[in-house]
Amino acid sequence: MEIHHFEGKALDDLKAKLEDQIKTETGCLPRKRRAKGLCIECLEPALAKCYSADGRGEYRISGMCEKCFDEMFAEDEDGEI
Ligand SMILES: [Zn+2]
Questions:
Q1: How many other β-carbons are positioned within 10 Å of the β-carbon of residue 14?
Q2: Exposed/middle/buried for 74, CB within 10 Å: 0-12, 13-18, 19+?
Q3: Spacing, Cα 62 to ligand 1 middle (Å)
Q4: In this structure, are residues 68 and 39 in contact, taking their beta carbons and an 8 Å threshold?
Q5: pLDDT at position 74, please?
Q6: Is the predicted pLDDT of residue 45 greater than 90, yes or no?
Q7: 39-69 core/surface letters (b: 16 or more CB in 10 A; e: else)
Q8: Residues whose beta carbons lie less than 5 angstroms from ion ligand 1
């Protein structure tokens, strides 16, 4: 087995490719960014912009802070209904 194939640069490239794929398929950013507590939408500390327990719950699910989540939701409702 050629494990050494995927060391260093090659491994980083592979990871980057996988993350791009995940991003494309799910529309979500890789876990790395969310682990820092950042909103995937505004890239600011999400918990600082979650004003309720519901908001924090949403952040855990969607990766977006409550403000961005509300805005996205509001846009949907303003849309073509
Ligand atoms: Zn946000």
A1: 12
A2: exposed
A3: 11
A4: yes
A5: 85
A6: yes
A7: bbbeeeebeebbeeeebeebbeebbbbbbbb
A8: 39, 41-42, 65, 68
| Helix, strand or coil, per DSSP, at residue 1 | coil
Q: How far apart are CA 17 and CA 21, in angstroms?
A: 6
Q: 5 C-alpha vs ligand 1 centroid, how far in Å?
A: 39
**What is the residue-averaged pLDDT of the chain?**
77
How far out from the chain centre does Cα 49 lie?
A: 16
The dihedral of CA 5, 7, 13, 17: what is its sign? positive
**Residue carrying the six token digits 């507590």:** 37
